[in-house]
Amino acid sequence: MAEKVVVVGGGLAGSECALALAARGVPVRLVEMRPEKSSPAHHTGNLAELVCSNSMKSTREDSAAGLLKRELKMLGSVLLACAEQAAVPAGGALAVDRERFSQLVEERVAAADNIEVVRAEASEIPSGRVVIAAGPLCSPSLAEKIHELVGGEALSFFDAAAPIVDASTIDRSVLFCQSRYGEAGEGDYLNAPFTREEYDAFIDALVGAERVVLKDFERRELFQACQPAEEVARTGHDALRFGAMKPVGLTDPRSGKRPWAALQLRAENAERTAYNLVGFQTNLTFGEQRRVFRMVPGLENAEFFRYGVMHRNTFVDSPHVLDRTFKVPGTTVRLAGQITGTEGYVEAIASGLLAALNTYAEICGAPAVELPRTTAFGALVAYATDPATEGYQPMHVNFGLVPPLEDGRRRKKRERYAAYAARAQADLAAYLATRPDLRIG
Ligand SMILES: Cc1cc2nc3c(=O)[nH]c(=O)nc-3n(C[C@H](O)[C@H](O)[C@H](O)COP(=O)(O)OP(=O)(O)OC[C@H]3O[C@@H](n4cnc5c(N)ncnc54)[C@H](O)[C@@H]3O)c2cc1C
Predict the structure, then answer these.
(1) Predicted confidence band at 413 (pLDDT cuts at 50, 70, 90)?
(2) Domains in the chain: how many in total?
(3) Could you tell me if 125 and 16 lie in one domain?
(4) Do 232 and 134 belong together in one domain?
(5) What is the rounded average pLDDT of the residues 364-377?
(6) Of all residues in the chain, what percent carry a pLDDT higher than 70?
(7) What CATH number should be reported for the domain holding residue 150?
(8) Which of 91, 114, 255, 295 sits CB 3.0–4.6 Å from 27 for a disulfide?
């Protein structure tokens, strides 16, 4: 197979993509700018450097992160195998010795005689078949070219996201469904009503909570772009009550009155299994988000599918500029990794693998690889490429994205998650049985 594929970025997605293509006999040029030029967060010139924590999260199959690992194993991920080889003890999580992990990936790349590694910045989008996996800190010159490629407002440089909660853990006897000025029981929002005392306690907790220490490059740029809720609250005790938490146009059906303040929740998906806290992009630590947002009436027992984040993050508006295979329609360019908005180390590995499988399928004239929606990664890809998704924000795998179980039976959370995991693996195995072309060798 002669056609060379250019993979830009030797991070997690790019390294996995290059190795998966090479294993299927496709020659690859892997272009990595480090160590010649670094990003604000990388420290080495190593391929597949982990920029922050050394944890790849849970290995429990009844967690979305654990299920994703299981799916990657079924798909033959090389980087997951390297991570398992470089594992250090971490309870129920997969944590790695980062140096050893990168070294193993480098060895696998060096051993593949059809991967040419070029250590240089790609400041243009290369011609021919290309996978761009330049990550959340993609170099500015390349980011500009991607911007031109996808157009308009479709490239963001910051991720300012509000927490997302599991709908099944919300107390519906407290929250009420109503759009502003609409009838109770109707509308797109759930409203958490606050009394004056509840509001006062919530604001005090919010402004006093511990925040994530931002890196200098983030502090400079980020706060000009968007204010976290706790910063708004710091400007005045009532600032949120006249902003994101304004109660005007709402009537609490329990009291028949307008609440003192209200926090609105908006559905994240058509199935309404997940809700985001509207206007509550936040920079609090995850532990503090759990503590403070559980003070919201009706969220006392809320489980979080995703915590709010605010950090530098280059990503495209995938639902509106990429097809289901993460390709820019009408071009030979595919994106992979965090730049598509699929967030997290293991998600980056997964999207690098999927980009490789789709590029390979395309070269062979085979149908596109579309993972079942019931799988952890298939659900994330479906979310990330659904044109109905508005205000797209990067997302890691979570069970809020998978379709509900067909039998409609009520289950406790762990039992439900175990059922999701069993269904996903059965569906993926059935899908792979129809695609012998994707097997290596
Ligand atoms: C500061 C920060 C901390 C994070 N911490 C975590 C965490 O703890 N846990 C977690 O799960 N996720 C974390 N993430 C999110 C995400 O999982 C990681 O960023 C992950 O590395 C993304 O993988 P990737 O392959 O898309 O990008 P990367 O791993 O960043 O790889 C992109 C590669 O492209 C190269 N590159 C960029 N531009 C060019 C160019 N023009 N030419 C050639 N090469 C180029 C870069 O040098 C880099 O090697 C973090 C993100 C950031 C920004």
Answers:
(1) confident
(2) 2
(3) yes
(4) no
(5) 97
(6) 95
(7) 3.50.50.60
(8) 114
289-339 per-position pLDDT tens digit: 999 999 999 999 999 998 998 877 899 999 999 999 999 999 999 999 999
C-alpha 71/C-alpha 350 separation (Å) is 9
Structure tokens at 413: 């959370």
Ligand 1 pocket test, pick from 146, 147, 345 with the greatest ligand atom count within 8 Å of Cβ, gives 345
Residue 343 alpha carbon to ligand 1 centre in Å:
10
Same domain, 238 and 364: no
Is residue 10 domain-shared with residue 156, that is, in the same domain? yes
- The angle, 0 to 180 degrees and rounded to 10, between the axes of the packed helices 12-23 and 98-111 is 30
Residues 23, 156, single domain; the answer is yes
pLDDT greater than 60 at residue 225: no
Give this prediction's pTM: 0.85
For a pocket test of ligand 1, which of 51, 124, 146, 346 has the largest count of ligand atoms closer than 8 A to its C-beta? Answer: 51
CB 405 within 8 A of CB 422: no
Residue reference for tokens 């490239």: 155
Task: Let me know: does 164 contact 400? Beta carbons within 8 Å.
Answer: yes
Which of 289, 163, 311 has its CA nearest to residue 226?
311
pLDDT tens digit sequence for 50-109: 988 899 999 998 999 999 999 999 999 999 999 999 999 888 899 999 999 999 999 999
The Cα–Cα gap between 72 and 223 comes to 37
Pair (68, 144) in one structural domain: yes
Mean pLDDT of the chain: 93
pLDDT of residue 50: 95
Residue 362 CA to residue 439 CA, distance in Å, equals: 15
Residue with tokens 């594929």: 5
Please give the number of the atom of ligand 1 that sits closest to the Cα of 312: 53
Q: Are residues 117 and 200 in the same domain?
A: no
* Interval 380-386 mean pLDDT: 95
The range of the structural domain enclosing residue 234 comes to 164-307
Taking residues 397-411, what's their average pLDDT? 90
Which of 307, 324, 346 is the last residue before a domain boundary?
307
Domain-terminating residue out of 307, 340, 367:
307
Nearest alpha carbon, ligand 1 atom 11: 344
Are residues 302 and 368 located together in one domain of the fold? no
The 189-194 sheet, strands edge to edge = 176-177, 189-194, 261-267, 274-277, 164-166, 304-306
Assigned token pair, 280? 């509550």
Q: Which two tokens stand for residue 205?
A: 């907790």
Our mutation pick for probing the ligand 1 site, out of 34, 137, 147, 215, counting the most ligand atoms within 8 A of Cβ, is 137
The number of the ligand 1 atom at minimal distance from the alpha carbon of 47 is 49
